[in-house]
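Propose amino acids for all 539 sites.
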């Protein structure tokens, strides 16, 4: 059975015709021979008609049909029944009369047809079913967009958007590895690019990100020796959130920003340490265009990042990390013009940056983090699972050490600042009390482990299971973690590892940012644990 789908519809293609009257006459004589043959067959053979269900969609009518090939000749009826089926007539054994008639009439009609084509000077082109790719119109769907008006209120709005074509990411295959080096991050991304040609430009992006992370790992390790501890400018320097900047905040931001810029693939960059998104100038040097043909993407990607998460702990030698997310430049999730009604003094360039940057987590094409601790870990996803690498300082390469990370549905550790317990919502109090006491669905007594560095706590949660959270409280009504470059990228990772992430009321990945530094409540972990928390909020 060969199903014919909507994308490959079968059309009849005919051979060339001629207007010469004598050729037309020969054609008529040939046709008469065929008709006579069929007339004989009608009295000499029997037929069986079967009805087959439809299996392939045809345009708006949603008519389905199927062409079946068998050992017997098939005739497809020209119409369809009311129940959207087609009738197929299977030829059966012939009688002696049919054999005699066909032995005389078929050769005669065949000879006449051959003479006609010979005189026409062209080779015979039989009429046949030919697979042809048809152009499909772009589908449009209505999407539900949600965001938090405050820590207790979820607002939903409807938006019409183009339906995205599902993109399947092929996982890299390694038929052979080196015993001395293992699978490096560089080779991993090379194989990803080979398996997914559309992601080739991400190879250079990840090459620059891993170089920046190696540099930051060195800076963190030598910060006390090189005098890079303490506050920027001796104190008083603050970022856009009003947080005092450490020396390493400023240095690491510059390292990562320049590394991404130098790829030539970035259109816009947004950072925790920058007040607004920055448009990247990808103009090539004039000399490139004179002698060398260079293909330029024009900044296909948008990067958002926190260069040094947990930097308040860096002077004490506590693990810190880098969080990043990568969006693709496209026409989806653009802000409406009304978004800028109260921003009359904003330049058009800045409006363009915001339109490119303010996207929900569902638009991410890649996300990850680097953890600077007893070892330097690099964990990321491209939307097809989560893989973890560890830096081998002897060769300067990240080596695959944690392939296909999966978070269990329920763990036994929760990571949360319990000093804020009295300021939490009632559902959050009930949830954490249940974990600590064992009065939860899993009937497990959890233990508390909290570093105070999101990357460190989430890394442990990914590997061991459990729950990480920074919920809303009376002091921070909208939570404390930033949606765009902390909550969304980390939620992408957790979901790709089989977990879930929520504010308690809304899935983190569904929230469209209203500004670059928007904060949200966040709780993430195993699927069973988060489902239990959401049910408490829904009561």
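Proposal:
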């Amino acid at each position: 059975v060969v199903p014919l789908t909507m994308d490959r519809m079968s059309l009849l293609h005919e051979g060339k015709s001629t207007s010469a009257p004598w050729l037309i006459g020969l054609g008529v004589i040939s046709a008469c021979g065929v008709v006579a043959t069929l007339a004989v067959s009608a009295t000499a053979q029997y037929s069986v008609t079967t009805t087959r269900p439809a299996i392939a969609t045809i345009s708006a009518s949603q008519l389905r049909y199927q062409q079946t090939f068998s050992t017997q000749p098939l005739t497809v009826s020209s119409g369809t029944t009311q129940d959207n089926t087609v009738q197929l007539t299977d030829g059966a054994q012939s009688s002696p009369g049919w054999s005699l008639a066909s032995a005389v009439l078929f050769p005669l009609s065949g000879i006449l047809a051959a003479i006609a084509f010979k005189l026409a000077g062209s080779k015979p082109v039989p009429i046949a079913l030919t697979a042809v790719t048809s152009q499909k119109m772009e589908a449009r769907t209505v999407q539900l967009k949600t965001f938090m008006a405050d820590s207790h209120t979820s607002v939903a709005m409807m938006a019409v958007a183009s339906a995205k074509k599902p993109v399947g990411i092929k996982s890299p295959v390694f038929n052979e590895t080196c015993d001395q080096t293992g699978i490096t991050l560089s080779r991993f991304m090379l194989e990803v690019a080979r398996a997914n040609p559309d992601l080739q430009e991400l190879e250079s992006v990840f090459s620059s990100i891993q170089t920046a992370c190696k540099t930051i790992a060195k800076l963190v390790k030598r910060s006390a020796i090189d005098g890079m501890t303490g506050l920027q400018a001796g104190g008083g320097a603050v970022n856009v959130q009003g947080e005092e900047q450490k020396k390493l905040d400023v240095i690491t931001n510059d390292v990562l920003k320049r590394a991404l810029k130098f790829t030539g693939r970035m259109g816009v960059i947004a950072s925790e340490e920058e007040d607004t998104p920055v448009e990247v100038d990808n103009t090539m040097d004039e000399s490139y265009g004179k002698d060398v043909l260079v293909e330029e993407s024009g900044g296909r990607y948008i990067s958002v990042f926190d260069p040094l998460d947990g930097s308040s702990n860096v002077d004490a030698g506590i693990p810190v990390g880098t969080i990043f997310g990568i969006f693709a430049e496209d026409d989806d999730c653009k802000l409406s013009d009304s978004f800028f009604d109260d921003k009359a003094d904003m330049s058009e360039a800045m409006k363009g940056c915001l339109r490119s940057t303010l996207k929900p987590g569902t638009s991410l094409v890649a996300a990850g983090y680097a953890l600077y601790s007893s070892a330097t870990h690099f964990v990321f996803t491209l939307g097809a699972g989560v893989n973890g690498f560890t830096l081998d300082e002897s060769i300067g390469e990240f080596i695959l050490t944690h392939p296909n990370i999966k978070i269990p549905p329920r763990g036994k550790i929760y990571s949360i600042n319990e000093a804020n317990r009295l300021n939490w919502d009632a559902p959050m109090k009930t949830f954490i009390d249940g974990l600590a006491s064992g009065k939860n669905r899993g009937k497990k007594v959890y233990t508390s482990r909290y570093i105070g560095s999101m990357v460190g706590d989430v890394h442990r949660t990914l590997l061991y299971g459990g729950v990480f959270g920074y919920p809303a409280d009376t002091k921070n009504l909208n939570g404390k973690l930033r949606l765009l470059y902390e909550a969304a990228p980390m939620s992408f990772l957790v979901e790709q590892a089989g977990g879930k992430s929520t504010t308690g009321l809304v899935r983190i990945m569904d929230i469209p940012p209203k500004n670059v530094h928007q904060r949200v409540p966040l709780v993430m972990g195993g699927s069973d644990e988060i489902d239990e928390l959401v049910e408490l909020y829904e009561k």
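The longest strand covers residues 85-94. The first helix runs from residue 21 to 44.
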